[in-house]
Amino acid sequence: MRVLGVGPGDLKTVPDFARGRVVGVRPPMQGVLVIPAAKPIGDATETAELVTAVRAELHERAKSLDDPIALFGELGSEIYTDREADLLIETTDKGILKVTPRVSGDSSTGVRSVETFMFDMVCLISAIKNERAPRILVHDSHLFDAIDGRQVASCLNIGARLAEQYGFQYVVTLNSDFLELVTAQSDGAFDADPYIMSTRLTDATDDGGLFGLRFD
Fold this sequence. Notes:
Elements: E1 2-6, H1 44-60, H2 62-79, E2 85-91, E3 97-103, H3 109-129, E4 136-139, H4 149-166, E5 169-174, H5 176-185, E6 196-200
Parallel strand pairs: 4-5
Antiparallel strand pairs: 1-5, 1-6, 2-3
Helix pairs in contact: 2-3, 3-4, 4-5
């Protein structure tokens, strides 16, 4: 198992949140959509009032959602040339805010995994812009298992570029043979060498894991 990493710092730098320290809780910031906690719904009138309130809040904050929606579409266009990607944000008939990442075409496991990748990136970048997130994102190899090698290469290139652009650590664990396959299928579009870390993960020994010990 190889570890790819890009961004400031390295794996030896453990963020405060990983050490169990409370680093501070910020109040809601301007431009951030804040939906009040749902209350038990007693009748149709309360439901209608809740739907109206959420729709009004969504309309009021619409401009703050333009960038995340646009970024999701841009990432989709970079990964797929024959599909459209949309981030749908709507209110359900029960007054619940619903966010749906969607790529057109079939809903195969690989496409759903790409949706997850793009949604993770969009959420992290949006949170970083509002200073509400740790600057790190980790993806395990399982996310990429069902994705075509060319799309995996695009995802890794996107992750590396956005990590540099927004100053966060992007860490990916991939099996060595899978990484070689992705590099070969990319036709030179992806080069893993600048990102491969010296850390090697293996289950051959008890101390071959990321934290140097085995969890039961």
